[in-house]
């Protein structure tokens, strides 16, 4: 049946950058899912407090090989 | 690593309204997933029998905090 | 040739709710088209008069089996 | 120069339904903007607490005639 | 609460066709998930080696009934 | 007034392939509509029974010249 | 049941402009359909011959009130 | 903080063309907003009366520099 | 191998109309590319100076047959 | 009437990063608008001079609570 | 500067299937472009003559490594 | 004929950030194309190895003035 991948959707958060928000989500998810191979960003938001950006939030899909 | 959320995609059904279809899906999923925080509607369909709407079907994504 | 369905696009209107606007459109169209099987909502708008919503308007596609 | 309309984007909230969330936003905005004529729903989300939907949130655009 | 479905996202691969790539993904996923009912194709890609297509890759969502 | 085309939307079904599903829909529709000139695929779904794909379903628009 | 509208999809063509292509399609369709009320442009293409634009082609949806 | 622009959304109308509808909206808005720099068309519709196009309506976003 | 077309993406500009902006881009590109067959408009923008539209800008794809 | 939010659309610019471009826009807008709560990125562009990126430009929507 | 890829857009045609239409386009383009690595399908159309599908047309993007 | 721009599509890669991935692609392409003026990000992906992000990949369009 060849290879099959499954995609999951995650929301990562960082106070510093979208790159760190992505890494946070991938590293968090990797604790329970092995073999994540690639990701795709689908949305980028954030939180504002007192006129300052306090959180960068990224929605992404990450794919891993199904056993 | 901060907080990470995971999104799942559900299809809820009701004979009465989209609001009830959403609640049905969320309550059903909450039996096995704890900590659902928000949802986003992505599609709204329905079933027609003999010229009458018999089902409102909603596709939604719901997010919960990853441990 | 198997089954083939045709989709038509309708705009339904209600003073009360989107669910009623959908039912209105389906029931109206069913007077001349038999065998409507399902619908898909594509847009939701409405009319405002004097600061109050007076109409809920829904654009939907409905499908029926071709003879 | 004929008529010109301006569109604004609002987020309305209700504990009961999307229709009420829309009406809430329109009535709230109508306190400072006169002559709102129509609206278009662009997104539908909501909040979940303890496995139950507690808020229906709607994003919509509303248009009014420019003086 | 009526019926609720869950959708998962898969990537299937075949050297021959998109239909086979879809079947591969569905049959692979069916080994661990029971009751898959329908699927929806969202993307179609592929791999090229030495000027020849060597893989057809399909991204699809598949839905199954939640217990 | 020059040439004008009308587009209709169809859903075709095949047990074998999307190409056959398209041909089925076009040939079925051609029994009552003359002069279909081109088509555009808009969605591809399918049915799953017992872990196997049993139907390829295609949504397409087909255009014909208005008299 | 209130008012219901039906939308049809047309392709209009002109050698001069998109506005004329739209008018051509609407006037052509109006010969067999009464009560067209509004239209929405969905695509704009055209034909090129010997490095010159020879046709402006517009895809539009037009709506009329269902009896 | 560098330059920041704000975008507003307008609907312009003309009996003659989309270009005139755009100019009408921009000139109307320029009476109260200074420094509009560019616009982007997002939708094109129109009105039909007795089988003839009587209005070209354009939805556009226009941007101006924030003080 | 049958016919193959290649699409290129262009931005055309005119002080007068989108139709002229399209023609400008096609005629400019035709000086180096032979056999352009059709085009598809993807975006329409423009420039504003002192409250007046001074440029209509169109983004389009144009296709030509590969040798 | 519950809470209502209004969304505005901004374009922020930075020579260094999209995160700084977002912060620039939010801080600039916060000088006249109080209570901005969240933002959503909708587009990311930039300027190129002599083969080097000289500006990162971000289009975003920011929301604040209506009084 | 790391690796950079360039994407080109092609239209491939086959009388038999979309897979063959893709292969035709890739093999045709590979005569002048070396190192094509992957492709992504963006549209699927076709031609109809006398009520039968006579051409499957696929629009795809193909990527190759820049020297 | 006024100015005409051509857009090309590139994929840039960086181990550090999307900003660097963009700069890499633009600087690489600038070795053979003169006069690149602006770019637009269309997709953001990346590669994951052993639970860590190892590549940020950006898909972008860049435009240059046609001679």
Characterization of the model:
The structure is a homododecamer of 67-residue chains. Chain A is of the alpha+beta class and 67 residues long. The first copy, chain A, has one helix spanning 18-30, and strands at residues 4-14, 36-49, 52-65. A 3-stranded antiparallel sheet of chain A has the order 1-3-2, covered by helices on one side. Chain A has a single domain, classed as 2-Layer Sandwich (Dodecin subunit-like), CATH 3.30.1660. Chain A is elongated and about 50 Å long. The first copy, chain A, has 1 helix and 3 strands; from the N terminus they run βαββ. At the A-J interface, β2 and β3 of A face α1 and β2 of J.
Could you give a quick summary of the protein structure above?
12 copies of one chain form a homododecamer. The first copy, chain A, is an alpha+beta fold. In chain A, about 20% of the residues lie in helices and about 60% in strands.
- First CA to last CA of chain A: what distance? 11 Å
**Helix amount of chain A, in percent?**
10-25%
**Do you know the CATH architecture of chain A?**
2-Layer Sandwich
Indicate the mean pLDDT of chain A. Answer: 96
* Most extensive chain-chain interface: A-J, 14 and 17 residues
> What is the overall shape of chain A?
elongated
CATH class of chain A: Alpha Beta
Number of strands of chain A: 3
What oligomeric state is this?
A: homododecamer
Strand order of the largest sheet of chain A: 1-3-2
H-E order of chain A: EHEE
Strand content of chain A: over 45%
Poorly predicted parts of chain A = none
CATH topology of chain A: Dodecin subunit-like
| Rg over C-alpha atoms of chain A, rounded to the nearest angstrom | 14 Å
Q: Helix count of chain A?
A: 1
CATH superfamily of chain A: Flavin-binding protein dodecin
Give the number of domains of chain A.
Answer: 1
Structural class of chain A: alpha+beta
Can you summarize the main beta sheet of chain A?
3 strands, antiparallel
């Amino acid at each position: 049946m060849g290879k099959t991948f499954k995609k999951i959707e995650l929301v990562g958060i960082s106070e510093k950058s979208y790159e760190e928000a992505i890494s946070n989500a991938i590293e968090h998810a990797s604790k329970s899912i092995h073999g994540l191979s690639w990701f795709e960003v689908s949305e980028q938001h954030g939180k504002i407090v007192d006129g300052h950006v306090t959180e960068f939030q990224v929605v992404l899909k990450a794919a891993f090989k199904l056993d």
